[in-house]
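User: Some background: our group keeps a shared notebook of sequences we're curious about, and every so often someone picks one and asks for a predicted structure to add to the entry. Today it's my turn. The entry only has the sequence so far, pasted here. Could you supply the structure so I can complete it?
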Amino acid sequence: MKRSGIITIAIVGILLVAVVAGYAFHLNRKAKMDAERNTEATAVQKVLLRDLEKNYPPTPKEVVKYFAEITQCFYNEDYTKEELNQLAEKIQGIYDDELIANKTQEDYLNDLSSEIADMKDENYTISSYVLSASVDVEEFVENGYSCARLYCTFNVKQGTKGTVPSVEEFVLRKDGDGHWKIYGWQLADD
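Assistant: Of course. Here's the predicted structure to add to the notebook entry:
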């Protein structure tokens, strides 16, 4: 009887150790999964991860979509000064050289920072955007350049107020590498 009691105690002890080890393994695995979820890329990081040299947007619509994604990051997200500079560099990567030449880099960054600060002070965000349908992209030739015109509606929200649409007209021009670059944009006529 004494021997069977020792065996029973040993079996119960082994089972308890297995249960505790299993529970510890479960907690450790859960902590790792939570840590992985918390390290998912932010919207800013996702935009910055795009390599324009290897993965340049192939159509005018995709270029304006990338512009809209970066613009949403400017006004909706939190980021460091370094990330702001990187976002500015990314957006300039889809601008036509003539557009970039209109301002010095310092003036561009100062104007951009000021505009973003003004929008954030007024509690404006871009809740969504809608691009022209592909069939609504007008392609034409001007001064020997292939150009495209399309529209993007930005739905701008101020605080808890409703959204107000802002329709922008974009003109893009193909560069020497065959990439569509934003030549300019303006508020669309009503």
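Suggested note for the entry: The helical segments are 2-38, 43-49, 60-76, 81-92, 97-100, 105-121. The radius of gyration is 27 Å.
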